[in-house]
Design brief:
Strand order of the largest sheet: 2-1-3-10-4
Number of helices: 12
Distance between the termini: 35 Å
Number of strands: 10
CATH architecture of the largest domain: 3-Layer(aba) Sandwich
Order of helices and strands: HEHEHEEEEHEHEEHEHHHHHH
Largest sheet: 5 strands, mixed
Structural class: alpha/beta
CATH class of the largest domain: Alpha Beta
Strand content: 15-25%
């Protein structure tokens, strides 16, 4: 059958190039935020790439993506970005996946620390705790996240992400960094947030990050089935981690924790300035655009 002159042949690859570009690391702790885009009802609505967290921020800075799940410290370093409200990777107590490992009995005995090379927010958090609350500054080095190698030449090691939950604990003291932050401040801690370039708000207005998170939680059993094949922990431990250790909402105490973290990061010269938290109302933007 011949096509009429008015028919248009749509190239699927062309259509995909027009989708919002997102970047987010696929750690277990980010799985509920991105599952909907990968496997759920929002599959095919975005172009989602999976770099390490620091690279996510770099892609956003380079305008290679419209939105990214970034280490929270990078919000202060990136110009012209805003945050998606009430969606994060954070903790109100022990987080389990961001830990300081040492053989010393007291933290004040630590003189050198190897930092997981993929860490930015957690590295700044650790430095704040030493400088602000312990009153000392160890020597810092970066390393691949291999505990034995890191401790060979250093008193302590900062490990983040899935590797932090699975290394052998024999004869090691493991200090939970979110738990330590709460001990000193009484506040929760936000590790990662969705950030959007201000000039690209219209391109991501149709992307409902909060609804994607909620669908992720509705798919928790699927997430657990997937990650128990990748992470050598019991299914109930993975479930407890996602439902009790991690929080995916930004309430007022979490916001206060973010503000204090930024203030202390500036005080100790880890960031050049402190800009106010700016959250974008994507629901309102969708109404304005009629999407």
């Amino acid at each position: 059958m011949n096509r009429s002159a008015s028919e248009t042949v749509i190239d699927p690859s062309y259509e995909r190039e027009k989708l919002p570009r997102l970047a987010a690391s696929s750690y277990l702790n980010s799985a509920p935020l991105i599952w909907s885009f990968l496997h759920g009802s929002r599959r095919g609505t975005v172009n989602l790439t999976d770099p390490v967290p620091a690279r996510c921020a770099q892609l956003l800075a380079e305008d290679a993506v419209e939105a990214a799940l970034i280490p929270v410290i990078e919000y202060q370093r990136l110009p012209d970005v805003c945050l998606v409200p009430d969606v994060c990777v954070g903790s109100k107590g022990n987080v389990r996946s961001v830990v300081l490992v040492t053989r010393t009995r007291e933290l004040k005995e630590i003189r050198s620390v190897a930092l997981d090379e993929s860490s930015r927010t957690s590295a700044a958090l650790l430095k704040i705790i030493f400088l602000e609350f312990l009153g000392l500054e160890p020597a810092w080095a970066t390393s691949a996240p291999k505990v034995e190698l890191m401790l060979r030449d250093n008193d302590a090691a900062l490990i983040i992400g899935d590797p932090a939950m699975t290394f052998a604990r024999n004869d090691l003291r493991v200090v939970d960094m979110a738990g330590l932050w709460r001990e000193y401040t009484g506040l929760g801690f936000v590790f990662a947030v969705w950030a959007v370039r201000n000039k690209n708000l219209s391109q991501v207005a149709g992307t409902d990050f909060a609804a994607a998170r909620d669908e992720g939680f509705q798919s928790l059993e699927e997430i657990l089935s997937h990650y128990e094949q990748e992470i050598p922990l019991a299914r109930n431990e993975l479930e407890e981690y996602l439902t009790k250790d991690i929080t995916f909402h930004i309430d007022q105490p979490m916001k206060q924790g973010m503000k204090l973290y930024f203030e202390l990061a500036h005080k100790h010269r880890l960031i050049e300035q402190v800009k106010e938290l700016t959250f974008v109302d994507l629901t309102r933007k969708r109404m304005e655009l009629g999407v």
